[in-house]
Amino acid sequence: MESSEEIRVLVVDDHPMWRDAVARDLDEAGVTVVGTAGDGAKALRIAPAVRPTLAVVDMHLPDMTGVELTAGLIALGEPPRVLVLSASGAGDDVLAAVKAGATGYLVKSAGRDELLDAVRRVHRGEAVYTPGLAGLVLGEYRRLSSRERDRDDPSPALTPRETEVLRLVAKGLAYKQIAQRLSIAHRTVQNHVQNTLTKLHLHNRVELVRYAIDRGLDD
């Protein structure tokens, strides 16, 4: 088995034939496809009900960009990991998707086996990119990390509970899992995360994880 947790995928693409082909390939490989959507609004509407652990997202949708959809999915109470599958391999698109919270980025020229491998690896929390794009993302990550370390202002003080929640977020646990681990309400976890984001002037879960990793809180 690739993971002790079932992979539950939501496929979002506005081209029906492509969307159905991806869903079929995943299904034939034993991956559970819990839903499909042709636009971002439907994806955000059904995601809380079908509870995907991973979303395969096109970069260009009729009602919003894949970047906007990625940010919306990451903001959910139980956010799925996001793998962008796009016709575009432009550096700006890749970096925008990663900054919004995408864990992986493949161009649509990728083969079936490459897609299936990426789905399984992204589900485990690995960062997966089409060859040639990984160096671009790593370079940007290092640039941002260096800029953050060079800031003169000291980091705001977090409460012990906020730090505890931050450690578990950095380990990749979903809010529900954190709530169970700490024996607190799901809403309380969300409140701690939001308070931490506000204190640190961060915008999403990905920036929060990067902050925690930079400070060794993921150990």
From TrEMBL:
It holds the Pfam family Response_reg. Residues 151-216 form the HTH luxR-type domain. Coiled coil: none annotated. Keywords: DNA-binding, Phosphoprotein. Residues 8-123 form the Response regulatory domain. The keyword DNA-binding applies. The modification 4-aspartylphosphate is found at D58. This is Response regulator transcription factor.
